[in-house]
Specification:
With 374 residues, the protein is an alpha+beta fold. It has three domains: 119 residues, 2-Layer Sandwich (Beta-Lactamase), CATH 3.30.450; 76 residues, Helix Hairpins (Orthogonal Bundle); 162 residues, Histidine kinase-like ATPase, C-terminal domain (Heat Shock Protein 90, 2-Layer Sandwich). Helices cover 44% and strands 24% of the residues. The chain contains eleven helices and twelve strands. A hairpin with a 5-residue loop joins strand 11 and strand 12. The two termini are 44 Å apart. Bound molecules: adenosine-5'-triphosphate (ATP) and magnesium ion (MG). The site of magnesium ion has 4 residues, from helix 9.
């Protein structure tokens, strides 16, 4: 045996565990914590000092499933994984979906000398799954809506034609003209909604060029500031100036962000505040076969309005869902469609009473040859 090699291998092991993005916690045979890596600190919100030398089941008393997995591993000496159903209660009060695997650590004997528990953060995986479910639901609704729109448009044309003929037959002073005018106006309104719906279900394909997010967002804010002047809204921009133009359809992206900024402005009370920020999230990547992993640009639009109830949250992306008098309920559905067409997705965080955060994640790619921007 070469002690120097042993030593450098040990150093490598330490570095790997220290830098792993998964939480690693090791316990001895009695369940006392003997290793707590930095990721474990950030997952749990507990420091190494607070955790080392303490009993696992005491610190994680509320995490009964994890305590149970650890106990089973120590007793039976075999690895156990729970991929799906564990929610880690963090010290901030938030819950993080995680997968946990526990493996025994053997020394010389046949009985385990301890166990190592590894947690993986599934938040982003869950977000992507939710975005996928939403997209599925939307494409089904899209097919249904396109069929319906087609069926309704023809009879509507007939109604409008008949009302216009009737209008011509009536004397110019006839009080009945008021009714025909209402019929024509309302038919046109329904027609407008159908056009918008058809646009949503069969949007034009995006024309990918350079989309300068800072410019798009600054222009939108300029316009919205003007529109919201009488309500004294405050718009605060935190744009990362180092983000270059990305690959995207600038007009469609402007429509997406305008819808979100408008929703935020409409939700707040007079004097309310809307924050808009851009940043690069390189902790998770868009993976496509045969390509380099691509980080995301995240654009966040937050407001201090009333937020969205859990019940409404399920439905806000559904076409025609609106809580506003005069709203069409097509704004967010359109946003979703545009994000999809850029291989991106939208996430919403809201606690009723403390506003909303809409974050749009777009692949951080340059237009030329689809190369990542880094
Ligand atoms: N920032 C927000 N704060 C609170 N609720 C919101 C926010 N953004 C969206 N919502 C909710 O989601 C619903 C759907 O939004 P969406 O943009 O699709 O339609 P709308 O704003 O009601 O109508 P339109 O966009 O046609 O004017 C809204 O009616 C509102 O209830
Ligand atoms: Mg809207």
């Amino acid at each position: 045996m070469c002690p120097e090699r042993d030593n450098s291998e040990a150093q490598i092991f330490i570095k790997v565990v220290e830098n792993l993005d998964r939480a690693v916690i090791a316990v001895d045979r009695s369940g006392r914590i003997v290793l707590f890596n930095p990721a474990a600190e950030s997952y749990t919100g507990l420091s190494r000092r607070q955790s080392l030398d303490r009993q696992f089941d005491e610190i994680f008393a509320s995490q009964t499933r994890m305590v149970d997995l650890l106990r089973q591993t120590l007793a039976a000496g075999r690895s156990i994984t729970d991929e799906e159903n564990i929610s880690l209660q963090q010290t901030t009060g938030a819950a993080m979906p995680i997968s946990v695997s526990v493996s025994p650590i053997y020394d010389q004997s046949d009985t385990p000398d301890g166990a190592v528990l590894i947690m993986r953060d599934l938040s982003r995986v869950r977000e992507l799954e939710a975005a996928l479910r939403q997209a599925d639901r939307q494409s089904m609704l899209g097919t249904l809506a396109a069929g319906l729109a087609h069926e309704v448009k023809n009879p509507l044309g007939g109604i409008r034609g008949a009302a216009q003929l009737l209008n011509m037959e009536l004397e110019s002073q006839s009080p009945l003209r008021e009714y025909t005018t209402v019929v024509i106006r309302e038919v046109e309104r329904v027609n407008g909604i159908i056009e918008e719906l058809m646009d949503l279900t069969r949007p034009r394909p995006p024309e990918m060029g350079d989309a300068d997010l800072s410019r798009i967002l600054s222009d939108i804010v300029l316009l919205q500031k003007e529109a919201g002047r009488s309500r004294c809204l405050e718009f605060v921009l935190h744009l990362d100036p180092s983000i270059p133009p990305i690959r995207g359809d600038a007009a469609l992206l402007a429509r997406l962000f305008l819808n979100l900024v408008k929703n935020a402005s409409e939700s707040v009370e007079p004097g309310g505040r809307i924050d808009i920020s851009t940043r690069i999230a390189s902790d998770y990547h868009l993976l496509s076969p045969g390509r380099r992993p691509v980080p995301w640009v995240v654009i966040e639009i937050s407001d201090n309005g009333p937020g969205i109830s859990d019940r409404d949250m399920e439905r806000i992306f559904t076409p025609f869902f609106t809580t506003k008098p005069g709203g069409s309920g097509l704004g967010l559905a359109t946003c979703q469609k545009i994000a999809d067409s850029h291989q991106g997705f939208i996430k919403v965080n809201s606690r009723p009473g403390s506003g909303c955060v809409f974050s749009v994640s777009l692949p951080f790619i340059r237009n030329d040859e689809e190369t990542p921007c880094f």
